[in-house]
Amino acid sequence: MDFSSNIAAQLNAGAILPEGIVIVTLMLVLVGDLIAGRRASRWLPYFAIAGLLASLAALYLQWDAPNTLSFFGGFNADNLSIAFRGIIALSTAVTISMSVRYIEQSGTSLAEFVAILLTATLGGMFLSGASDLVTIFVALETLSISSYLMTGYTKRDPRSNEAALKYLLIGAASSAIFLYGLSLLYGLSGGETNLSAIASALEISGSSQSLGIAVALVFAIAGIAFKISAVPFHQWTPDVYEGSPTPVVAFLSVGSKAAGFALAIRLLVTAFAVVSDEWRFIFTALAILSMILGNVVALAQSSMKRMLAYSSIGQAGFVMIGLIAGTEAGYSSTIFYLLIYLFMNLGAFSCVILFSLHTGTDQISEYSGLYQKDPLLTLALSLFLLSLGGIPPMAGFFGKIYLFWAGWQAGLYGLVLLALIASVVSIYYYIRVVKMMVVKEPHEMSETVKNYPEIRWNLSGMRPLQVGLVLSLIATSLAGILSDPLLGIAKDSVANSPVLQAAIVQPLSLADRRGIPTVEESDIVVN
């Protein structure tokens, strides 16, 4: 009896209740599709969204849970993982709402698409709380393989097939490199797979200066950088974004990226704690390259999806500032910005989907004069782009303010100044689209907009798209002004996470910045 109760306590299966709800939803979607066939498309998307909302409710109930470790330490359901799991589940719910009409119009099965998307969501949610090398890799591959399938989902489109092939080949290579890094970590720690046990073993053995830990660190960061689209591991991003179905791109830009940052935080601050200075140096280089290349190359893009692809590369550079800072404000600002990024980026892709459903194109030049025919779409897309650019009082402005201030407090002056310059550059290509939609005279209207069809919201799948667009617009407009609750959630997720509290770096004091010795230092000198 004691043995069975001890096993049950170590399993703590209730910690994965949110994932269990998603699994049940996934199974019912598959069974419902088998039984009802094409008729299931009328209710399956809404059932999937309801399941994801129930999963979010379960995550809310788990907040500040006393016992967070489960499955013998392989999964940690602390507040940090809850925040990232919530972002991923919420991004999937919004993605499903915007994909119903798009998938139906492409002539493919909606139920299968929802099932694959829910599988990717499961992988991302498990990855956000994984505390074991085996759990990390299985969750990462669940997310990756599902993403490959969704990328090539519109089989009749050659661009989708090309995108899926590129994504598969580069993704398989990055997974192999990442796995090799994990295997080195396993060997150096003496056969440990738990992240905390690996950290303890490396600290005891004094492996911080060994070549093996350096190679493991580089290989692990290469796998993580692929997931978050950081330069120079970004080559897949523009081509995959342009060729993939737009709802898939929306999920990859938010859900997959959030899972990548969750993996980066948990793996680096735990297993690679002995080389924290080294991995922060590497991420500084990645952030600099991502901000420069992403925002500069976006200036020359003619496709809306490719522009947003390079924009996401630049945004990843901004988010890395919080990770490099390593302070409580840095980690909380990273979570806060990802939560805001969810609404403004998914909202922008909702507008791109709506425009492409009516016109069949995503070329920026074809948006010319859109205000004359569709003021609502023009207003929504303009606000989303301005928020991505960091224009006040939109949510993106406050997200960047918190990120940059956290970096400044941590002494990352050069990085923050570069981020400010890159943010100003990004405003140009966002404003260019807004100007093209709004300022153009009637005689300068593109042929596509001249033939713009009448919007019919009563068509199948249009209402969920409209609801998702409006909710994203409201969140983007109000999340910045009413940012205190969201920032409070982000701060609580960091403050109540033992994993992060053990690794948090104290920000530089004013005396440190000026080179003035503190009281303690003065006492030491006197003595």
UniProtKB/TrEMBL annotation:
Principal location listed in the UniProt entry: membrane
Please list the residue ranges annotated as the NAD(P)H-quinone oxidoreductase subunit 2 N-terminal domain: 14-100
Please tell me one Gene Ontology term that the record gives under cellular component: endomembrane system
Quote the function comment for this protein.
NDH-1 shuttles electrons from an unknown electron donor, via FMN and iron-sulfur (Fe-S) centers, to quinones in the respiratory and/or the photosynthetic chain. The immediate electron acceptor for the enzyme in this species is believed to be plastoquinone. Couples the redox reaction to proton translocation, and thus conserves the redox energy in a proton gradient. Cyanobacterial NDH-1 also plays a role in inorganic carbon-concentration.
**Enzymatic reactions:** a plastoquinone + NADPH + (n+1) H(+)(in) = a plastoquinol + NADP(+) + n H(+)(out); a plastoquinone + NADH + (n+1) H(+)(in) = a plastoquinol + NAD(+) + n H(+)(out)
- Subunit comment: NDH-1 can be composed of about 15 different subunits; different subcomplexes with different compositions have been identified which probably have different functions.
* Transmembrane regions listed in the UniProt entry: 15-36, 43-62, 82-103, 110-127, 133-153, 165-188, 208-228, 249-275, 281-300, 307-329, 335-355, 376-398, 410-431, 465-483
- Give the family, as the similarity comment puts it: Belongs to the complex I subunit 2 family.
Q: Report the protein name in the record.
A: NAD(P)H-quinone oxidoreductase subunit 2
InterPro entries per the UniProt record, alphabetical: NADH-Q_OxRdtase_suN/2, ND/Mrp_TM, Ndh2_N
Q: Which GO terms describe its molecular function?
A: NADH dehydrogenase (ubiquinone) activity; oxidoreductase activity, acting on NAD(P)H, quinone or similar compound as acceptor; quinone binding
Protein's organism: Lusitaniella coriacea LEGE 07157
